[in-house]
């Protein structure tokens, strides 16, 4: 069964617990009707839906960048013990570092600073000495395939490589949750496929929970363990789909009948979500 009931909530394993969260902007725009969404640790969840359905608003509320008008959003329920351990055992991950990172569509890099300095920024802001943080930067740059570009300025890099820098900067704090708002939307198809594959590898290796906004059905099916479908006017969740294909997923997955079946299901659901309400 592909279309599923909302995930049953086991509080100890929840990365994000959203209960009846709404958003009305100050100009009166009702961006989101009450949203109930539980995301388990380790899930790869995509938010898919037409423009204006509230995907970015929901992501920003999860990140704490904007507050819900009503309802509640809790991050890392049951994580108190872990945070405490990190706080006391590691100079690299003091409690001031967020357990959650946000990667935007545009890489938003400092043009005057090299790749190493851009990636290290969150650790610099947290006051972590360079002798400690540089080791972590080397590790992350290797993971995103940028070891040879540590001293390059952003303008010397392609769009795909700049996005890798942005992802590396997101991962430098070792977050539990990575929030990504159409991160590869501006890239060409081949670069996007490569980054999708590399992101999946990082997700598995780093034990991340990823919440990923996209307009692309194919990207959502390829990446996700679960796809949340949203509809606009006003923004709301209409449906969700478990993508029950095994990981690791190679590009060949996109050629399978299983992939096509999911793509068709999501296409139908997206068409319904896109229908005007008048
Ligand atoms: N700061 C704001 N003030 C007022 N209204 C806003 C604000 N930000 C977003 N909105 C409105 O809230 C609704 C949801 O916007 P949001 O950006 O979350 O949608 P989205 O699904 O991310 O769209 P897109 O796919 O185009 O990025 C839209 O009607 C939008 O115009
Ligand atoms: Mg958006």
Give an account of the 3D structure.
It is built from eight helices and nine strands. The model is unreliable at 1-11 and 80-94 (pLDDT under 50). The strands form two sheets. The protein has a six-stranded mixed beta sheet, with helices on both faces. It has a three-stranded antiparallel beta sheet with strand order 2-1-4, with helices on one face. The protein is globular. The protein has 278 residues and is an alpha/beta fold. The two termini are 32 Å apart. The longest helix is centred in the C-terminal third of the chain and has 18 residues, at 257-274. 36% of the residues lie in helices and 22% in strands. Residues 25, 27, 29, 31, 51-57, 235 line the site of adenosine-5'-triphosphate (ATP).
What's the SSE blueprint?
Elements (H helix, E strand, L loop, with lengths): L13 E11 L5 E11 L3 E5 L6 H9 L6 E6 L4 H10 L10 E4 L11 H11 L4 H14 L15 H13 L5 E5 L7 H17 L3 E6 L2 H7 L2 E6 L4 E7 L14 H18 L4
Parallel strand pairs: 3-7, 3-8, 5-6, 6-7
Antiparallel strand pairs: 1-2, 1-4, 8-9
Helix pairs in contact: 3-4, 3-5, 4-5, 7-8
The structure holds adenosine-5'-triphosphate (ATP) and magnesium ion.
């Amino acid at each position: 069964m592909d279309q599923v009931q909302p995930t049953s909530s086991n509080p100890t394993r929840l990365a994000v617990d959203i209960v009846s969260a709404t958003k009305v902007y100050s100009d009166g725009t009702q961006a989101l009707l009450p949203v109930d969404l539980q995301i388990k640790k380790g899930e790869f969840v995509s938010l898919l839906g037409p423009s204006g359905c509230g995907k970015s608003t929901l992501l920003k509320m999860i990140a704490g960048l904007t507050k819900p008008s009503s309802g509640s959003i809790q991050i890392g329920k049951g994580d108190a013990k872990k945070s405490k351990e990190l706080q006391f055992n590691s100079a690299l991950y003091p409690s001031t570092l967020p357990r959650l990172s946000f990667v935007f569509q545009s890489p938003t890099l400092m043009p005057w600073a090299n790749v190493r300095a851009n990636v290290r920024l969150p650790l610099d802001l947290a006051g972590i000495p360079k002798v400690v943080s540089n080791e972590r930067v080397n590790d992350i740059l290797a993971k995103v395939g940028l070891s040879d570009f540590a001293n390059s300025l952003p303008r010397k890099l392609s769009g795909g490589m700049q996005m890798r820098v942005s992802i590396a900067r997101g991962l430098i704090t070792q977050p539990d949750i990575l929030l990504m708002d159409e991160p590869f939307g501006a890239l060409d198809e081949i670069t996007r496929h490569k980054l999708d594959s590399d992101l999946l590898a990082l997700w598995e290796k780093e034990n991340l929970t990823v919440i990923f906004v996209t307009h692309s059905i194919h990207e959502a099916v390829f990446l996700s363990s679960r796809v949340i479908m949203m509809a606009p006017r006003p923004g709301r969740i209409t449906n969700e789909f478990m993508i029950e294909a095994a990981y690791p997923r190679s590009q060949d997955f996109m050629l399978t009948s299983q992939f096509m079946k999911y793509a068709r299901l999501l296409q139908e659901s997206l068409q319904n979500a896109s229908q005007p309400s008048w």
